[in-house]
Write a sequence for this structure.
């Protein structure tokens, strides 16, 4: 495996997020009066995105079932002396009442303009062996919850003084093609792409929908996936990383969560006003090249 910044062969942990790693943009709507809702904010890409948006001056409301993880994200924002702030809204995204309450709480913090649907799950199994209760929970978190959250947030964006805002959805290279043993994840990501385009179709130009698609990112979810794939395929962890995860990529390096977070910063900004219904594909050449 290629070396990662701040890690070695015995560690699959990304380096700490610093202000220098965060893309900061001068945008008139990036202020504490405006709110960005971020799901999965207790860890991984969700945490990095919540931090990056707070550094850019927004009030961020972080949703996650992991309350202690949300507290750690808040501590990081505070330690960076961010221009914005982070407020925790603990919620189980499979519970409609908790999800609705979280958006109500977010609306009390300012004008909701942005939503980042990032929370995700993974389960490695073939279709015949895939447990349906796991299928239901995974699609509830990764597809139904983003739909509900979009339903709840869109009226808030439309109610702002200019109706400008955006919903960014965490898709994947697996929203573009399929590999074995990830059928539910792939199904959810393809569905999320459809939701993205539907938001754009109904957004009248000022309320945008976009998605972010990346390859393999150095997150706790990815670390668990390595172990599961090792067991499912009967190969070593190094083989999973080098052959399964990075084998098809041209850039032989796992992405960092903050690098993905920066794509959401760009996508929410006025610099991306023509990004509507489209996908930010940063995959190191994974999906569109071959040997």
């Amino acid at each position: 495996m290629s070396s990662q910044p701040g890690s070695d062969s015995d560690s699959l942990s990304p380096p700490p997020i610093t202000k220098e790693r965060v893309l900061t943009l001068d945008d008139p709507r990036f202020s504490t009066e405006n709110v960005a809702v971020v799901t999965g904010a207790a860890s991984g890409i969700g945490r990095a995105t919540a931090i990056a948006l707070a550094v850019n001056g927004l009030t961020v409301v972080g949703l996650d079932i992991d309350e202690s993880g949300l507290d750690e994200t808040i501590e990081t924002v505070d330690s960076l002396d961010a221009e914005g702030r982070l407020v925790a809204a603990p919620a189980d995204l499979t519970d409609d009442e908790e999800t609705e309450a979280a958006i109500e709480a977010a609306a009390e913090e300012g004008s909701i303009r942005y939503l980042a649907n990032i929370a995700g799950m993974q389960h490695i199994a073939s279709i015949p062996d895939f447990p349906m209760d796991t299928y239901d929970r995974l699609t509830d978190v990764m597809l139904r919850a983003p739909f509900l959250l979009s339903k709840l947030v869109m009226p808030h964006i439309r109610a702002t003084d200019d109706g400008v805002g955006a919903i960014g959805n965490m898709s994947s290279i697996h929203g573009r093609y399929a590999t074995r043993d990830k059928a539910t994840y792939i199904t959810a990501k393809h569905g999320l792409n459809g939701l993205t385009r539907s938001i754009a179709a109904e957004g009248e130009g000022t309320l945008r929908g976009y998605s972010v698609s990346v390859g393999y990112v150095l997150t706790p979810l990815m670390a668990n996936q390595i172990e599961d794939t090792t067991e499912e395929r009967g190969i070593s962890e190094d083989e999973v990383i080098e052959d399964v995860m990075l084998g098809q990529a041209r850039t032989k390096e796992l992405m960092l969560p903050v690098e993905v977070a920066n794509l959401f910063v760009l996508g929410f900004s006025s610099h991306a006003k023509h990004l509507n219904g489209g996908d930010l594909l940063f995959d190191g050449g994974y999906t569109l090249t071959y040997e």
